[in-house]
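Deliverable D2.4 — example input (C-alpha cells):
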C-alpha cells in the first residue's frame, strides 16, 4: 500500500537504481491521484511508457527490485505489451503506449502531463485529471468507479475530456467508447451533471451502428474462405493489427507483421484497422 508522495518517490528511486539512463514515465492511476491530493492511499501504481524499448528496460529494473511479473513473458510478447508486477502489498501495472490494448498515451496527453520530478533516473509525469478519468473509465478494477466519481467531484475540463475521446476514436477499435459511456452514464445517474454526456452517448451509438455493419461484412468475408495476407513492404510495424486480431493469428517477425494462416478466420478486421493498406484478404 502506498499512501504518500514520498512513498511513490521511494519506489521510483529504488527502481531507478537499476537503470542505465534517464527515462520518462507517465503515471495515470491511484499513484497519480495521490500526487494530485484526490486519494489518500493506493495499492496500484499505473504507469505508461511511450515505447517498447523503454517498457522492456523498465520491466527489467522493476523485476530486479524484487517485484514478480504476474503475466508470463511468452503471453505478453505476442500481445500489446503490458504486465502487472507484485511485491508484498504493492502492485505496479505497466503499459507500453496503449492501456489495456485500447486508449493510447497520445501526444496531447503527453503535452498535458505535469512533471512530478526526477527520481533517480526516472522523469516522472502525472497525466491530467481529464486523461486519468478517460483511462479509468475503461478499467473496471475494485475502486475504479469510486475514483472516477472523486475525479468528477474535484472538477474536470469536460471539453478537453471530450476532445481527447473524439481524437482517439477511429475504426473498429472504438469499443472503449461504450465503456466510457457506461461509466459516465452511471455517474450521471447519481445526480452528477456531466455536460458532455450526450456527445459521448452519441459516439457510442455511432460505434454500435458501425459494429453491426462490420459484423455482417465479417460474416460474409469468413464465408468466402479468404485469409489475410501482409504486404511486408507496406507494413510500418505499428502493432495495431496484432492487438486487434480476435484469433491471435498475427505475430511479429523481423520488425513486421506476419499472419498464421491456420489461425486466420478471414474476418477482415485487420484489413480495416491497418492505416497503411498493408493487409489484404485473398483466397
Ligand atoms: S500490417 Fe498494418 S496494422 Fe499491422 S503492424 Fe503493419 S502497418 Fe501496423
Ligand atoms: S482476417 Fe481476422 S483472423 Fe485473420 S488475421 Fe485478420 S483479424 Fe486475424
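Example output (designed residues):
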Amino acid at each position: 500500500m502506498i499512501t504518500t508522495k514520498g512513498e511513490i518517490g521511494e519506489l521510483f528511486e529504488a527502481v531507478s537504481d537499476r537503470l542505465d539512463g534517464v527515462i520518462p514515465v507517465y503515471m495515470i492511476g491511484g499513484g497519480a491521484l495521490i500526487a494530485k491530493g484526490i486519494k489518500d492511499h493506493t495499492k496500484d501504481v499505473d504507469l505508461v511508457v511511450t515505447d517498447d524499448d523503454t517498457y522492456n528496460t523498465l520491466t527489467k529494473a522493476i523485476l530486479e527490485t524484487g517485484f514478480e511479473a504476474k503475466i508470463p513473458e511468452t503471453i505478453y510478447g505476442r500481445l500489446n505489451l503490458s504486465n502487472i508486477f507484485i511485491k508484498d502489498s504493492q502492485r505496479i501495472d505497466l503499459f507500453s503506449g496503449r492501456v489495456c490494448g485500447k486508449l493510447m498515451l497520445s501526444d496531447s496527453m503527453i503535452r498535458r502531463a505535469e512533471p512530478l520530478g526526477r527520481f533517480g533516473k526516472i522523469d516522472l509525469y502525472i497525466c491530467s485529471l481529464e486523461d486519468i478519468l478517460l483511462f479509468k473509465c475503461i478499467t473496471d478494477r475494485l475502486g475504479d468507479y469510486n475514483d472516477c466519481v472523486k475525479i468528477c467531484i474535484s472538477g474536470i475540463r469536460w471539453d478537453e475530456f471530450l476532445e481527447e475521446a473524439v481524437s482517439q476514436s477511429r475504426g473498429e477499435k472504438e469499443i472503449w467508447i461504450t465503456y466510457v459511456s457506461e461509466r459516465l452514464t452511471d455517474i450521471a445517474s447519481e445526480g452528477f451533471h456531466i455536460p458532455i454526456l450526450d456527445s459521448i452517448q452519441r459516439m457510442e451509438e455511432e460505434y454500435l451502428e458501425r459494429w453491426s455493419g462490420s459484423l455482417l461484412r465479417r460474416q460474409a468475408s469468413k464465408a468466402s474462405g479468404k485469409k489475410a495476407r501482409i504486404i511486408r513492404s507496406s507494413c510500418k510495424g505499428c502493432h495495431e493489427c496484432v492487438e486487434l486480431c480476435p484469433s491471435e493469428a498475427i505475430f511479429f517477425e523481423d520488425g513486421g507483421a506476419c499472419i498464421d494462416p491456420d489461425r486466420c478466420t478471414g474476418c477482415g478486421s485487420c484489413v480495416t484497422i491497418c492505416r497503411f493498406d498493408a493487409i489484404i484478404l485473398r483466397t
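The domain at 224-282 is CATH 3.30.70.20 (Alpha-Beta Plaits).
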